[in-house]
Amino acid sequence: MNFDIAFSRLIGNEGGYVNHPRDPGGETKYGIRKGSYPDVDIANLAIDGAKAIYLRDFWNPVSVDDAVRFQVFDAAVNHGIGTAIRMLQRAVGVADDGHWGPVSASKAESMDRNDILLRFLAERLDFMRKLSTWRDFGAGWAGRIVENLKYASEDN
C-alpha cells in the first residue's frame, strides 16, 4: 500500500463537483470542501490539486500500519482528520483527543491489525448512523464501509 494506491481507491468514492442542499459539507469537489479550504476554487479544482491536499492533510498526519492507514485516510477525507483520528484512538483504546502522538502510536503498534481494522470500521459506521443526514446519505455511506471492509480483507 502506498499513497497512489490509496488515492486510486478513494477517488472512486469522492467524484466530481457537488453542492447538495442537504449535505452540510456544502460545495465539494473530490472530497475537498469549501468550508475547510476557503481559498481554493472548488469548482475548478484539478485532480492533481486535490491529490496534493490529500497527501499533505489527510495521508501524512497519521503513520500506522498501511491497511489501517488507508482506512484512516478514507475516513479523514469523509469526516475530517480530527474525527478520523478520534475514531482510530477509540479503536485502539486510548483517550480520543484527536492528536496522534506517541501513546496512540505505541498502543496501535501493540495491537493486531485485524482488531484495529474491525474496531475502526465499527467506530466509523456508528459515527455515521448517528448523523442527522443518515436518512439522506446513509445507504451510500454504508456502501462505502462495505467496500472498505473488502479492502481491509485484501490488505490483511
The average pLDDT is 92
How much helical structure, as a percent, in the residues? Answer: 55-70%
Poorly predicted regions: none
Q: Describe the biggest sheet?
A: 3 strands, antiparallel
Helices and strands: which structural class? Answer: mainly alpha
Number of strands: 3
Strand order of the largest sheet: 1-2-3
Oligomer: single chain
Q: How would the global form be characterised? A: globular
Account of the 3D structure:
By secondary structure, this protein is mainly alpha-helical. Helix content is 63%, strand content 4%. The protein has 7 helices and 3 strands; from the N terminus they run αβββαααααα. The protein has helices at residues 3-14, 47-59, 66-79, 81-92, 102-110, 113-129, 134-155, and strands at 17-18, 28-29, 32-33. Strands 1-2-3 form a 3-stranded antiparallel sheet, with no helix packed on it. Helix 3 (66-79) packs antiparallel against helix 7 (134-155). The longest helix is centred in the last third of the chain and has 22 residues, at 134-155. It is globular, with a radius of gyration of 15 Å. The protein starts with a helix and ends with a helix. The mean pLDDT is 92.
Brief overview:
The protein is mainly alpha-helical and 156 residues long. It has 7 helices and 3 strands, in the order αβββαααααα.
SSE layout and pairings?
Blueprint: H1 3-14, E1 17-18, E2 28-29, E3 32-33, H2 47-59, H3 66-79, H4 81-92, H5 102-110, H6 113-129, H7 134-155
Antiparallel strand pairs: 1-2, 2-3
Helix pairs in contact: 3-4, 3-6, 3-7, 4-6, 6-7
